[in-house]
Design brief:
By secondary structure, the chain is α+β, with helices and mostly antiparallel strands. Helices cover 28% and strands 11% of the residues. The protein is globular. 35% of the residues are buried.
Length: 322
């Protein structure tokens, strides 16, 4: 079912259900029995949907498990957790619904829209911050790539520190590698990029090493990229590696010169050289159709690639399913 058909059918019921708005000053509490009902059946309001965890079933939304209050974090007053140029989220239930219809995450995708007092570095445990612009302006996909979350884990940075400009580097590199039959990994990504962080804002990205800069023509920045953000539940619908443990708080104390995987096998060096010798690829040429074609190789669940144990190299087998 395409986007227009979804909008015209099941999703229209969600919009219809938002006509009766519960006053935001004293939002009505839903009875426990409503957890198994859809958003349309519950006749929830936009205000209420913005405050509760919601789960995508593949065709509609329903309430997810409520978050344990003990896991919720208040706006941090710790040292180095007052970052500049971050504001309350502009994400709403409508904007996230539109995002879900456009990006088509697997059933089970669950999110929470942060209240006004929360910021990208104050998510509940197990709900990292994700920006809408990563998908609407940078063509990222669900589930989030394993190497991206592993990279953040090993650098001890929060996922919410990663900038849209950094995603615009990550996406074409991953697609180009897949087109060459190479699975992007932390080791390869660190060879092709170098980490950069802004200490006042806490934002982070991996910028291209000049000799490997095969992607050109991308805009120098994405305006207001950090204004719309949500907290996304770590599960197999949203994360390729649902076992990942990610920082919630921002961290500016990273070693820019440290590489987590040292040395290189002959196969790894051949992969680096294959990417280096690519002709320059322009950002506008990384089309949605091209990304979708590459996803068949990128997503681990398709079994197109195997990883060797203990070392991060690609092993190709003639009997691998395509």
């Amino acid at each position: 079912m395409d986007l227009e058909e979804r909008e015209a059918s099941g999703q229209a019921a969600v919009d219809d259900a938002t006509e009766e708005v519960v006053p935001s000053s004293q939002p009505e509490k839903l009875p426990p029995t409503t957890k198994d009902k859809t958003a349309a059946e519950m006749e929830i309001s936009l205000d209420l949907a913005d405050l509760l965890p919601m789960r995508w079933t593949g065709t509609d939304f329903e309430l997810d498990e409520e978050i344990d209050p003990d896991q919720e974090r208040r706006l941090s007053i710790k040292k180095n957790q007052r970052w500049e140029n971050h504001f309350p989220t502009r994400s709403t239930f409508k904007s996230v619904r539109r995002l879900v219809l456009q990006t088509n995450p697997p059933a089970g995708f669950s999110f929470l829209i942060p209240p006004d007092h929360q910021r990208p570095w104050t998510p509940p445990a197990g709900y990292p911050c994700v920006y809408e612009s990563w998908f609407t302006n940078c063509s990222l996909w669900w589930p989030l790539p394993e190497f991206l979350t592993t990279y953040c884990h090993q650098r001890r940075i929060a996922l919410g520190q990663y900038t849209a400009n950094g995603i615009r580097i990550l996406v074409p590199l991953t697609v180009l590698a897949a087109e060459l039959g190479i699975l992007m990994s932390v080791r390869l990504f660190e060879e092709l990029t170098t980490p950069s962080i802004t200490t006042k804002t806490g934002i982070f990205y991996g910028k291209m090493v000049p000799k490997y800069n095969v992607n050109t023509g991308k805009p120098s920045k994405v305006n207001f990229w950090n204004r719309a953000y949500i907290y996304v539940k770590i599960n197999d619908a949203s994360f390729e590696d649902p076992s990942i443990v990610l920082n919630g708080y921002f961290n500016a104390n990273i070693d820019r010169n440290s590489k987590w995987s040292q040395g290189g096998t002959e196969s790894f060096l051949e992969e680096v050289e294959a990417i280096r010798t690519l002709s320059h690829q322009h950002w506008p040429d990384i089309s949605e159709a091209r990304i979708q074609a590459a996803l068949k190789r990128i997503i681990r669940g398709n079994l197109f690639f195997k990883r060797a144990l203990l070392i991060d190299i690609i092993v190709y087998g003639d009997d691998m399913p395509v």
